[in-house]
Amino acid sequence: MVELSYMNNQNETIDRYCECGVFGRNAAVDRAQGVLTLPRTDPKGCGQDLVYNRNASSPPDWIALVKRGNCTFSEKILAARRQGAAAVVIYNGDGTGNSTTHMSHPEAPNVVAIMIGNYQGMEILKLLQNGTEVQMIIEVGSPHGPWMDTYWLYFLSIAFFIVTTASIAYFVFISANRLYNLRVHRRAERQLKSEAKKAIKRLEVRTLKRGDEETASENFLCAVCIEPYKVGDVVTVLTCDHIFHKACIEPWLLERRTCPMCKCDILKALGVEEESKDYGTRPEVTVVTVAGGDAMYEVPLTDTARPPTYDDRSFEEEPTRG
Ligand SMILES: [Zn+2]
Ligand SMILES: [Zn+2]
């Protein structure tokens, strides 16, 4: 904590307080107070024979203000201590704004030494050069600063890296999973279609003749196209004895493999499914597992347990005969 107080041109006392100084790595973390004083010659406070701007009438407690650069922090601090400074304030180099660094000064330990930003340093410098007396009080603030910053940055970077990596890995896993499922599903669909084709070939096909009961009444309708049967219509008889137009039922069976009226499964009824399984044409199933865990998923290739779905709800009920 840095507190500055001085008189401005209007003879008003200006008091400023900020959390803007950082103790050096080897500094005594302690309170210090005094009049800010510049070196007489080198503003960077270097050199063996450095002298500070003091005379017999100067107040006894003073704090050295020097700029960063030209020599080590230790040299600057030692030179100021030799002259009797209570503390040393080093302001950062040009172009660094108000940033500070965590000074290392192993050859000059146990001295109250802080770094302040360049802007603040230059501001004080101007006041001092105008002959203003600036008092500074250095107080120990809350324990944070470059040490914490560095390690926090470290910790945050690592945490960020882990989170990012985990997210990407998860995303890749999910995508691969979806792609795999889709492929298995498509393969299963193709398989079922070819089985349905085989089954369709085995179904009885009739051409309706005059005198057939289906043509006798308008009440006999093809449940797919809702049209009454006419003489000469080619119809397919399913294993459940329900009949439909051949042209109507074949695309339906390719997609759904069940009778639109009674939901009977033609693959099961004709035993086509069993046969194709025996021939070993089933595509292989890969079970993806996580080490030490249970099987994550297993995709059934022919989910015969799934009830048939209809786009048109009317197929789920017997057509009304009136
Ligand atoms: Zn029809
Ligand atoms: Zn049927």
Strand content: 15-25%
Bound molecules: zinc ion
The CATH architecture of the largest domain comes to: 3-Layer(bba) Sandwich
> Helix tally?
7
Describe it for me?
With 322 residues, the chain is an alpha+beta fold. The chain folds into 2 domains: 2-141, Glucose Oxidase, domain 1 (3-Layer(bba) Sandwich), CATH 3.50.30; 186-316, Zinc/RING finger domain, C3HC4 (zinc finger) (Herpes Virus-1, 2-Layer Sandwich). It is built from 7 helices and 13 strands. The protein has helices spanning 73-82, 118-129, 146-202, 213-216, 246-256, 266-270, 272-278; strands at 2-7, 13-18, 22-23, 32-37, 62-67, 87-91, 113-116, 135-138, 204-207, 234-237, 243-245, 288-289, 295-297. The strands form 3 sheets. It has an 8-stranded mixed sheet with strand order 2-1-8-4-5-6-7-3, with helices on both faces. A 3-stranded antiparallel sheet has the order 9-10-11. Helix 3 (146-202) runs antiparallel to helix 5. The radius of gyration is 46 Å and the shape is rod-shaped. The structure holds zinc ion (ZN) (2 copies).
Protein traits:
322 residues; alpha+beta; Glucose Oxidase, domain 1; Herpes Virus-1; 2 domains; eight-stranded mixed beta sheet; three-stranded antiparallel beta sheet; 7 helices; 17% strand; rod-shaped; disordered C terminus; binds zinc ion; Znf_RING/FYVE/PHD
